């Protein structure tokens, strides 16, 4: 059974109460529920400096087989690079926007090339298969967002 620091939970509840207006009993009840939820929330899992909890929430897929432990980043790239795509019913790209600026369909493939096969080797903490014209931009945003 996990032990909780009751004093810190109560202090956190009173911090929350001070930011609210209204009935003190109702505020304290809500604040205690919030403080307990924060205390029970699982801690972020960090491996070799990478925050795996945030990566998984962003859509990265963990692969562990044959003695290898990797996080594949293909699903996280569009949101990280701020790339928006529209598709025809056939699956072909209809329109593409990078940072809210219209770009060509070919340019959208160049952006996605940077992270389509990229993965993090969790044993070493290095990023592999990050290639192309936008690889440096992707690596900068990846490190700023997910590296602890």
Widest β-sheet, arrangement of strands: 3-4-8-9
Could you describe the largest sheet, including whether it forms a barrel? Answer: 4 strands, antiparallel
- Percent in helix: 40-55%
> Structural class of the secondary elements?
alpha+beta
Span of the ends, CA to CA: 28 Å
Our estimate of the beta-strand percent is 15-25%
Order of helical and strand elements: HHEEHEEHEEEHEEH
Total count of strands: 9
* Number of helical segments with 4 or more residues: 6
Rounded to an integer in angstroms, the radius of gyration calculated over CA atoms is: 21 Å
The mean pLDDT is 85
Task: Pick out the low-confidence regions.
Answer: none
Globular, elongated, flat, extended or rod-shaped: what is the shape?
extended
Give structural attributes.
single chain; 148 residues; alpha+beta; four-stranded antiparallel β-sheet; three-stranded antiparallel β-sheet; 6 helices; 23% strand
Task: Characterise this structure.
- The chain has 148 residues and is of the alpha+beta class.
- The chain has 6 helices and 9 strands.
- The strands form 3 sheets. Strands 3-4-8-9 form a 4-stranded antiparallel β-sheet, with helices on one face.
- Helix 1 (6-18) packs across helix 2 (24-40).
- The longest helix is centred in the first third of the chain and has 17 residues, at 24-40.
- The two termini are 28 Å apart.
Quick gist of this model?
The protein has helices at 6-18, 24-40, 52-58, 77-81, 105-113, 135-146, and strands spanning 46-47, 50-51, 61-65, 68-72, 83-87, 93-98, 101-103, 119-121, 126-128. With 148 residues, it is α+β, with helices and mostly antiparallel strands.
């Amino acid at each position: 059974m996990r032990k909780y620091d009751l004093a810190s939970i109560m202090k956190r509840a009173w911090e929350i109460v001070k930011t609210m207006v209204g009935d003190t009993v109702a505020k304290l009840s809500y604040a205690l529920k919030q403080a307990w939820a924060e205390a029970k929330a699982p801690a972020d899992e960090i491996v070799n400096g990478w925050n795996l909890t945030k990566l998984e929430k962003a859509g990265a897929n963990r692969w562990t087989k044959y003695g290898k432990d990797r996080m594949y980043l293909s699903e996280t790239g569009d949101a990280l690079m701020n790339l928006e795509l529209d598709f025809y019913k056939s699956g072909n790209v209809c329109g593409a926007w990078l940072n809210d600026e219209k770009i060509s369909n070919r340019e959208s493939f160049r952006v996605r090339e940077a992270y389509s096969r990229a993965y993090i080797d969790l044993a070493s903490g290095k990023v592999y298969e990050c290639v192309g014209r936008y690889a440096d931009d992707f690596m900068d945003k990846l490190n700023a967002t997910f590296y602890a």
